Amino acid sequence: MKIFQQMVRLTARRRGFHLITDEVVRAVPQMAEIKAGICQVFIQHTSASLTINENADPTVRKDFEMFFSKTVKENDPDYEHDYEGADDMPAHLKASLLGSSVTIPITNGRLALGTWQGIYLCEHRNHGGARSLVITAWGNEDDNDKC
Asked: Would you say the pTM of this structure is higher than 0.85?
């Protein structure tokens, strides 16, 4: 069994949902050595998140932003944690709803995503800055490898 781990710093992005699948794949070229395994992508932040969804139509990502902005509103007077800006507490809540990691099977050296699936960075802050990921891929190199 092989295990590969890579830290990745994503460039700052505006608030919204952004495809990062290609950046994840480029970060761990050793994934090509894994015949059957798992890739976990973890974000080291509390105001951004990760999810998997449609990669073809960009309006899906716009609708995600619209939905979460309507569902978790800014400037709620009941928020006590408000000293980092009106978008901060809602960003924490959105990140908790979506989660801090995704796990994808690896088959024959490639992420086994569906035809229309991609990995999203969900940036919930207006000015979130660069984001850090830990990408871990592990699995068997060939059919003779045993877990």
From this structure: yes
